[in-house]
Automatic annotation (TrEMBL):
Record carries keyword Iron: no
Domain of life: Bacteria
Official protein name in the record: FAD synthase
Organism: Metamycoplasma subdolum
GO process annotations (BP): FAD biosynthetic process; FMN biosynthetic process; riboflavin biosynthetic process
Enzyme Commission identifier(s): 2.7.7.2
Catalytic activity: FMN + ATP + H(+) = FAD + diphosphate
Claim: Nucleotidyltransferase is one of the keywords in the record: yes
SUPFAM superfamilies: Nucleotidylyl transferase
Taxonomy of the source species: Bacteria, Bacillati, Mycoplasmatota, Mycoplasmoidales, Metamycoplasmataceae
Amino acid sequence: MKLYRFNLKEKINQNDENLIMILGSFESLHLGHFSLIKKAKEIQNIEEDKNWKIALLMFKNPIRNGKMSDKKLLQLKVRAITLANLEIDYLYAIEDVEEIMKIDAEKFVEILEKNNVKKVVCGEDFRFGFSRKGDINLLKNYFETHIVELKKISENKISSTLINELILDGKIKEANELLIENYAIITNFDRLKFTFSESLNLPKKGIYLVNCVIKDYEFHGLSLIGLNENICYLFDLEFVISKHEEVYMEFLDSLRFIETKKDDGIFEEDIENAKKYFLQKK
């Protein structure tokens, strides 16, 4: 998969390949988004001409209530890894979110046409352009447009907003059930201490069961998101991790939450409970 920083001015699709464009905000990548990707792949497989590629347009930072938010659920790189695993051909990441919020809906359509977009896949509630005036009816005037029904759970729309709320409440298992891949962050370790990017919404203070991928090796363990610091405890780790080494930390479930300083630490009971959890998963 190729990742492009999309500035809305330059033509990115220089090969003049026919694009099937998946549209949405994609702050997270949940089961509703998976339905969009699945539909795009079905369309691609029907085409006899192999010059059709699937592209996905996403915002680097989310838009909430018509404004760009400083906080997001998943880092761009985490989302890109998931999309690469799903074999998306191109990812267009819009960095200047404020600029696209000012663009007329018709201008946005022109940008898509300039990049050889021929078919569009989006959800039934997709809106775009200044004041969100663009909708699926406008898209249908210019592209072969495929609309995917909203995914719901208990009559509620599966959305990044819902998943954000679950993560903030520490309900990792429930959030993972709605995500394409488990909730994860990319960070660095300094003697197994780690930090969250300031742009991320943090899970509730507590102890979490995690898998960490370091140098292509996966380790089970648990992570403390504490009152003053964050620490990871990994089983069977036999080498020193450079503080420059990226760590992909996948959250599996919550073990317990931290309310007071007395609870703020990884204790022997936590380690034993984590061992039992991973043994049951084997």
